[in-house]
Amino acid sequence: MADIKNSADLSPPSEIIGPLAWLRSNLFSSPLNSISTLIGLYIVYALFIPVIDWAFVSADWLGNNKDACSLKGACWVFVIQRLDFFIYGFYPDAEYWRVNIIFVLLALLIMPQMVEKAPYKRFSGWFFLTGFPIIAGVLLLGGILGLEPVSTDKWGGLLLTLVISFVGIIAALPLGVLLALGRRSKMPAIRIICTAFIELWRGVPLISVLFMASVMLPLFLPDGANFNKLLRALIGIVMFQSAYMAEVIRGGLQAIPKGQYEAAASLGLGYWKSMSLIILPQALKLVIPGIVNTFIALFKDTTLVLIIGLFDLLQTVNSAIVDPNWPQVSTEGFVFAGFVFWIFCFSMSRYSIALERKLDTGHKR
Question: Where does the chain have alpha helices with state H?
Answer without folding.
Answer: 2-8, 19-26, 31-52, 76-81, 83-88, 96-114, 121-129, 131-141, 157-183, 188-202, 206-211, 229-255, 258-266, 271-274, 280-286, 288-301, 313-320, 330-359
